[in-house]
Design a protein that fits this description.
It is a single chain. The chain is mostly beta strands and 585 residues long. The chain has four domains: 287 residues, no CATH class; 112 residues, Immunoglobulin-like (Sandwich), CATH 2.60.40; 57 residues, Immunoglobulin-like (Sandwich); 89 residues, Sandwich (Immunoglobulin-like). It has three helices and 39 strands. Strand 28 and strand 29 form a beta hairpin. The radius of gyration is 36 Å and the shape is flat.
Length: 585
């Protein structure tokens, strides 16, 4: 969602265009985060500095026992954006972009997942380069900035079960827009132990300390690096002095949330104030202790539709993006569109990363349309209400489109050609079903398998019974047609005297291809590609059998002989030659 804020400063209009900071990704487990990054400003822009470095570097140093999980690169600067950059010489293209307009001037930031690159590189120096905004710098001397940061998510078995939440967007405060409130949602706090919050913000400087404050859940935030009246002052909390205070016009900071968040919190309120400095918040990352399951469900398969409208549904409940076990007896509801048609529960405790499969028999109401959405919802007591607190309450539903006209046994025989059997498949593979095949409404002795091999004409059907569930198929008429044989055809030749076009009458080969077969029973068609001859789609053949050769010579022609229904066919091919005549030869 984008919003346009119209402010009035004196009598001049000021437009601010921004993108709200919202949840982007979450990670649940024994995880934490760190960050590396650097500014591209060699000095603060407070005194009109208009330069920018072409590259800058930072060092990643995960400790022993910390296992890399993922990496997320952000970069930002002036103008409408440079979205193709490099990290350690590897080209990186933006996967998400953010834009902001302030006082009529555009600013941007961008995001790319660099998990593969950082995972392969590991600890060491990372150099960001190839962001080119040099031509724009003279127009941004007072608000010039550029920089980059990588958030690194890592796993450590010594940690508590944590929830890492990454939020991003691009919003600002300034002298003309003094207050900014951002509510971080979808957060589940079990305790405040070792909880923390990080920010990436652009354009702040130490030289402007005029009512620039950061509040989290109503608490004024400050520390030795970030004073209470100058929260965004060009600092980097992830490195030591003196460089931590030389992150000019870029803030990469984190703060302890102990005593600020509490057990049961599901959101965090961020409030920024500035009476003068222009500050853009690009992203916020949180780490809180969270011990909650996350129930999701998938429909794996549907059985056949019984005559009494019963149908078996196979499903699996997962507990993947979680920090706690999913309790047994978690409710599951099934809906035909919005109509509740069945309920069940999980049987066992599902561990972190685990799953449990089950089967339920549903009865489809008579008034249900042929086409509907079968909705499976886990943690639902049948009215949309859940009873289990989860890390994500919005991913409990799975939708499976159903077409009742194909939910029974639908026999679809292929072509019936003499000498080649037809395989009929009931599609019923569940062991409890007893199957019986019929020919001309008479049971076929011993035909009790899911498939039937048919070699003689007749009207075929099948019946499957499992207790009170009975399923009858459609009836199909199978009439075996004569199988044509495509006899070899000779190649064709013409001389190119320089005045002829190389026109071939391909039907001259009809007699060779047909051989002794009855011409009343078969049709011969010619094609310029094998695929066209195999598909036999009407209108794709060489009409009338008259063909002008396509250079170079020779060209392969494909012939198809088929019965009068077009279902039984055989293929052959030959070449046509159009050779230039040479005097004396």
């Amino acid at each position: 969602m984008k919003k346009l804020i119209l402010l009035l400063l004196l009598i001049f209009p000021l437009f601010i265009f921004s993108q709200p900071v919202q949840l982007f990704q979450q990670f649940n487990g024994r995880y934490d985060f760190t960050a590396v990054g650097n500014t591209l400003n060699a000095q603060p822009n407070f005194n009109g500095y208009c330069g920018q470095l072409l590259q800058s570097s930072a060092n990643l140093a995960l400790n022993p026992g910390q296992t890399f999980v993922s990496a997320h690169l952000y970069w930002g600067s002036i103008g409408t954006g440079d979205f193709d950059v490099a990290l350690n010489g590897t080209p990186i293209s933006a996967q998400r972009i953010f834009s902001h307009t302030f006082n009529g001037s555009p600013y941007f930031s961008a995001y790319a997942d660099v998990t593969a690159l950082v995972g392969a590189t590991g600890n060491g120096t990372y150099t960001f380069s190839d962001m080119d905004v040099q031509a724009l710098l003279p127009g941004y001397c007072g608000t010039n900035f550029g920089g980059w940061a990588i958030y690194v998510i890592y796993e450590d078995p010594s940690l508590l079960l944590n929830q890492i939440s990454l939020f991003d967007g691009l919003e600002s405060v300034s002298a003309n827009n003094n207050n900014l409130s951002i509510t971080l949602t979808n957060i589940d706090v079990s305790s405040d132990v070792l909880s923390k919050i990080g920010f990436l913000a652009w354009e702040g400087e130490a030289e402007i300390a005029n009512g620039e404050s950061l509040f989290i859940n109503g608490t004024l935030i400050s520390n030795a690096l970030n004073p209470a009246n100058n929260a965004f002052n060009g600092t980097n909390s992830y490195i030591g002095p003196p460089a931590n205070a030389q992150n000019y016009n870029m803030d990469l900071d984190y703060y302890d949330l102990t005593g600020i968040v509490a057990q049961g919190d599901t959101s965090i309120l961020i409030e920024l104030e500035s009476q003068q400095d222009f500050i853009m918040v690009n992203n916020i990352i949180t780490s809180v202790n969270s011990e909650l399951p996350d129930a999701t469900i998938e429909i794996d398969d549907l059985g056949v539709l019984c005559q009494n409208n019963n149908i078996d549904v196979e499903y699996t409940v997962y507990n993947v993006n979680s920090t706690n076990e999913l309790p047994a007896n978690t409710p599951i509801a099934f809906y035909a569109d919005a109509v509740l048609i069945g309920q069940t529960t999980t049987t066992n405790i599902i561990p972190l990363g685990g799953s449990e499969s089950g089967t339920i028999t549903l009865n489809i109401p008579i008034a249900t349309p042929n086409n509907f959405n079968l909705r499976a919802v886990v943690d639902d007591i049948g009215n949309g209400t859940g009873i289990v607190a989860e890390t994500d309450e919005s991913n409990n539903e799975f939708i499976y489109p159903v077409d009742l006209s194909t939910a029974g046994i639908l026999l679809t025989p292929g072509p019936a050609c003499l000498g080649r059997p037809v395989i009929l498949d009931s599609g019923v593979t569940d062991p409890p079903f007893n199957i019986q095949w019929f020919r001309n409404a008479i049971p076929i002795p011993g035909a009790t398998n899911p498939t039937l091999v048919v070699t003689i004409d007749g009207i075929y059907s099948v019946e499957a019974v499992d207790g009170i569930c009975r399923v009858d198929s459609n009836s199909v008429v199978i009439t075996f047609r004569p199988q044509p044989v495509a006899n070899p055809a000779p190649d064709m030749y013409q001389c190119d005297y320089g005045s002829t076009a190389g026109v071939f009458n391909l039907t001259d080969n009809d007699g060779d291809i047909l051989g002794a077969q009855n011409p009343a029973d078969f049709v011969i068609k010619y094609y310029d590609t094998f695929q066209k001859s195999f598909d036999g789609i009407p209108g794709t053949e060489i009409l009338g059998g008259v063909h002008i050769i396509v250079p170079p010579s020779p060209q392969t022609i494909y012939a198809r002989i088929e019965d009068n229904t077009g279902s039984c066919f055989d293929l052959t091919d030959f070449k046509i030659y159009f050779s230039r005549a040479i005097a004396g030869i």
